[in-house]
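Quick question: what would this complex look like in 3D?
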Amino acid sequence: MVNFSPSEEQELLRQTLSDFAREVLRPQLRTSDEQNAMPPDLPAKGWELGLVQESIPEALGGFGGTRSAVTGALMLEELAYGSAALGFHLMAPRLVTVPLLVAGTESQRAEWLPKFAGAEFVAGTAAVVEPRWDFDAAHPATRAERSNGDWILNGEKCFSPLANRAEVILVYASTPDGLAAFLVERGAKGLTVGEREQNMGLKALDTFPVKLDGVRVPAAARLGGDGANLQPLLDASRVASAAAAVGVGRAAFDYAREYAKERKAFGVAIAQKQAIAFMLSNMAIEIDSMRLLAWEAAWRLDKGLPATREAALARQYAADQVLKIADNALQVLGGHGYIRDHLVELFLRDARGFAVIDGVAIV
Amino acid sequence: MIDFELSDATRNARKMTHMVAEQMMRPISRHCDEHEHEKPWDFINAMWNVSKSTSMTGSSTDGKDKDAKKPASEGRTLAMVMAVEELCWGDVGLYLSIPNPGLGGAAVAAAGTPEQRERFLARFKGDKPTWGAMAITEPSAGSDSAAIQATAVRDGDHWVLNGTKIFCTSGLMAAEKSEGFVVVWASLDRSAGRAGIRAFVVDAGTPGMYVTKVEDKLGIRASDTATIVLEDCRVPLDNLLGSAEVQKTSQGFKGVMATFDATRPIVAASALGVARAAVDFVRDTLKERGIEVRYGAPPQTLTALERDFMEMESQVQAARLLTWRAAWMIDNGIKNNLEASMCKAKAGLVVTWVTQKAVELLGPLGYSRSLLVEKWMRDAKISDIYEGTQQINQLIIARRILGYSSEALR
């Protein structure tokens, strides 16, 4: 039956993360962006919240919650409201744990999930995106070929968060039987993590290019075994992208709204001018639109319904709208919006990323 | 718990309503568009018989009836929103011409006393098709309803109404062609502005109420839009909507304004129906031509046609979810003033854009009156105007999100 309220449990989690985003992430937003770095003490603080452990079964050391894309979307929106880059960093180990929960075999889960349910933050990541203009997550150029019962991986990846310190990298590659993902352990022969990337936005997120030059992994390293269907992971990635975009959109909207109520022109707050007020009302409509589309796609994933169309539409819609919202937020501040004393230029740079971000199956 | 699963009851009701739209509305859609002032009586009579037994025709006659909510299915507003989308997928002009209490009935339900609801709404269970209508707009007062010039002056046991009302949906049917009524907004005290405005129920055929014009329109031609003149029109004292105290406070105006929180999701739903008609038509056409929309593909590799079509789909779905939410809030007793305006503003814009885009994508076929697509584009535009224009809804939203009064943000 149609219902628009999160469960009590989800609401509690949402509220906790909302406070965390305001009190812990947001104060670090500007400096982490300027310094291209995650504040050193943050991963531990995020870990205490159980962002990664929450959906890992108790038997494997986790908190025993059910993996839910809706819950993930609620979490990601709140974190991204504080800082998209820091939020993605804290959630990065879920690039491994969520795919294991969705598609992993029993033994893969038993081997890897306990490593992400310990007392301290453990980095894990995925290598999905490739440095090509027409990169398609469903048909990566990175190839996996069979060789004496093993798999040999060859290709180039980029935008892989925390790859330089990840215990395991889930590498997405094309095989003769379709899209597959492989658990590649740190230090594997032929695996090279390059120089930290410098991006336009999401600057505090440590991302790296990853090169696979004849990396050999055993058959058991293929996520879910031969023939596993990874489409739900691609779909989850798009839901995650949309949900994070909602958070960034809300951040830009709130910033512009507060500014518009303070700033006076012609004797009144500029928010009292319809030209400004209507930009803000449109932002509010679009933020709710983005969120509801993301929720619906997430709900389909949780129900096990086909969600490729809905997730793609939600992601595209969110990517388009968050850019418009951030752009208009900057416009509300006028010249001040262009100055780095204010956060809106940062939101605009982060917002543009959502057209590019893919392969973030963390919800 | 966040959920988008429709109950079986709602799904079945939707299927039935869709059949009505497909079999009773679509076949006469073009004819009614081309014969503007001819009433489709076969359709009207058939719908009267249907609507007496169900609540599918989109007007809440007992909005205060809390126990109408059944636990096993969606609430009544959400169910109605879904039914209205289906009917308007058939034809929005015909939907508007279905005999029912209409917006006047919604005002009676929202602002009337139990006695008034009984007295005015019982007629919709009778044998002959009956319409209710709402008369707010005047030649020089639209969105600014506080500027209303029509007056109500007490004379003994009666209110004497004077003024001119325009753009009154189903006004002809409610005032002259059935035993219906028109809810007329008029001022008790022009110097009091908004606080002086009250709503009065004027029964069909009351001396002094005349329909002087039925408009020729761009679209929704199956529905009549009337000018109603009130000339020393006398109505009983207890035809003022609301209780006796209402006559002394501004609660009356607020009560009637609250009607919009309930009706805007319904109007948004009617826009969704037209928008979906256009999207469905384009989808079918693409399918016939063997054009597949690649949903999972990287956006930068999509064709312009694919991107346009995907944008049409997501815009309509966004508007739909906003509309469902606003309706769901009503059903759950949550105030939805902001959300009702959001869904109306979004749906009005979306249907206008989506139908224009459909004409564009279909090229000369889209522009031709041999198809219904151009008609949907003409029908669509009114959704962004009536029941609060795009701009007035933006104003309401802006005041809400900024915490401004109507004085702070004019």
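Answer marked as accepted. The mean pLDDT of chain A is 97.
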